[in-house]
Amino acid sequence: MSAAAGGLDWTKTGSAGPPEPCVICGRPAICRSPAGKPVHKTCAEQWQQEHRKT
User: Splitting the chain (54 residues) into consecutive groups of 10 residues, what average pLDDT does each group show?
Assistant: First the structure.
């Protein structure tokens, strides 16, 4: 997962699949993280913001 200026850029590493529960919010997600986990891009971006080390 690379962080672009406005959020994560999954254009080369993300993928899609059948709806499965998002690992963060539990709602159906077709987006897959670069690690292959079902997750909404917005959920991943919010999680990253909340866990960013300052």
Answer: 60 84 97 90 91 78
Contact 38, 22 (CB under 8 A): yes
Cβ contacts of 1-7, under 8 Å, gap ≥ 24: 1/33, 1/34, 1/44, 1/48, 3/48, 7/41, 7/45
Cβ within 8 Å of residue 20, ≥6 positions away: 28, 29, 38
| 37's tokens | 């986990």
3-state secondary structure of 11: coil
